[in-house]
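Reading group handout, session on sequence-to-structure problems. Before we discuss, look at one worked example. The prompt was deliberately terse, the way you'd type it at a terminal:

> structure Histidine decarboxylase-like

The input record follows.
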Amino acid sequence: MNVCYEHHAALAPLLQFHLNNCGDPFTENPIDFHSKDFEVAVLDWFAQLWEIEKDEYWGYITNGGTEGNLHGLLIGRELHPTGVHYSNGHSTIPNYLLKSLYFRRSLN
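And the output record:
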């Protein structure tokens, strides 16, 4: 972990903007300042790597691992609505939150 904050003054102008996008990267954005083109380029790269045809994939780039994990759990719940969530005490997402938002049954 980098705990040196000496760089904050140089980065301050960049920190006033939220550079990741909200919503679908494949839709038009009413705001001109966005990174959707880069986001779609990353998705295109992975689709080409995995040999997925154009218009046969969708996705988005998350702001971090927790958001990615939550989205994966959401997709899992949609595909397997009677599934059981198993976890341990080392989860970064509180088990009560997972149970209340995503799963009917959660075992830890």
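Points for discussion. First: Helices lie at 8-15, 36-49, 65-79, 95-101. Second: Strands lie at 84-86, 105-107.
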